[in-house]
Amino acid sequence: MVTHSTQAWSTLKNYASLLLAQVFLLLLFASSPALAALPSNGVQNVTDGMANGTSTLSSFLSGFNFTNDSGYNYLGDPAGGANGIYPNVATSSASTTFTVNADGTNLGSFDLTAINFTNFSTTFNFGFTITGYKLGGGTVSTSFTATGQAFSSGTYTSFTGITGFQVTFVSSNTGNPSNITFDSFTIANATATVTTPGAPTITGITPGNGQLSVAFTAGSAGSSAITNYEYSTNGGGLFTAVSPAATTSPIVITGLTNGSTYQVQIRAVNGSGSGTATASSPGTPATVPGAPTIGTATAGNAQASVTFTAPGSNGGAAITTYTATASPGGATGTCAGPAACTITVTGLTNGTAYTFTVTATNSAGTGSASSASNSATPTTVPGAPTIGTATAGNAQATVTFTAPGSDGGAAITTYTATSSPGGITGTCAGPAACAITVTG
Question: What is the pTM of this model?
Fold first, then answer.
């Protein structure tokens, strides 16, 4: 049986201890996980600190997680031989697996430059497959098969930019569990990457009724895909996960109070945790205003003036415009908010009766209309009659005429004839033309 020398074994343990100390100091003084890179060319001796026949390691290189297939493995030779990981081969072609992964916090990826094996029994056939998991997805692998005494010891594989690797042994030995041992692995170019996502950018906030819709462009995903977003409405004091999870723009924040201004931040989440948050952006939830209370409509010449009282609720945003709408016809007039104001609706037809409703508008939209106003009929003065003849009498004259083409939108009530000189007048009742006698 091939065994390690005491001096070589001591040297390897001392190197492993020094390596762990260096890693600890690097992590201790790093300003963030993004800077906590592991040293290059680090050797992990899997036998250091192992108890015979156990399935865990008491000491392992910082930045890595180790998973042992304990149902089939030994850590340490149960027969009392040299330490290592051995297949527990109770049956022919038994297999055993162990896995080493970067922990995702201190270590982002690494290069596997060597796996070192020693064969302690040269009379049995065996093989192994090494599979490396690539950063960003995908795998790389290599396999080796030995027959009889064709293999005594060796170093195999070279994978770059991986996040973990798995080794699977298959042995034909049915009697000796110490057929082959995995002694150590060597890494290079280990990097601690920024594993959480970069900051998104808020591109707009649209108010809604008790909610805010936040549009954004995503930042970098980090070392794994973004799985959700979190939001804060108090400038980063407290973050809440979007539910159900959302990974695309926009996200909608609900349960807010209309009219209250919130300082919104969002941040992305991936498998390594929450990323950097955006800067704060203000947003004020709002809905449309309530209905104004109608006042009085007063007719004029082809127009009407409408008064009203402002609604009891502005919906959480200042009212910018009031609109009065005539019925029939749909002619409108506006005045600026937020206070109530008198609206003049023009373009009406004299002589037509109208009613009016009023609405209020804010940044969220236009609210419900008021009830209808009183009826108002725009009018103006009648047109000029067409003079007929004046017939003299004793201290008087009789005047005839034709009624005007337009009564101004209202029935003519009186016609008046005036003498010149003197300004003496006489009248007759409308609306039809009549003969007027001017006396005196």
Answer: 0.54
Cross-strand pairs, 143: 129
DSSP secondary structure code for residue 26 in this structure: H
CA dihedral 401, 404, 405, 410 (to 10 degrees): -140
By DSSP bridging, strand 64-68 and strand 94-102 are: antiparallel
> pLDDT digit string (tens) for 128-160?
788 888 876 788 888 776 655 444 445 556 788
Cβ–Cβ under 8 Å, residues 241 and 269: yes
Among residues 95, 135, 128, the alpha carbon closest in space to that of 112 is found at 135
How many whole angstroms separate alpha carbon 28 and alpha carbon 26? 6
CB atoms within 10 A of CB 252: 13
In tens, the pLDDT along 334-376 reads 999 999 999 999 999 999 999 999 999 999 999 999 999 999 9
Are 268 and 345 in contact by the 8 Å Cβ rule? The answer is: no
DSSP secondary structure letter of residue 35: G
Of 343, 365, 338, 362, residue with least CA distance to 354: 343
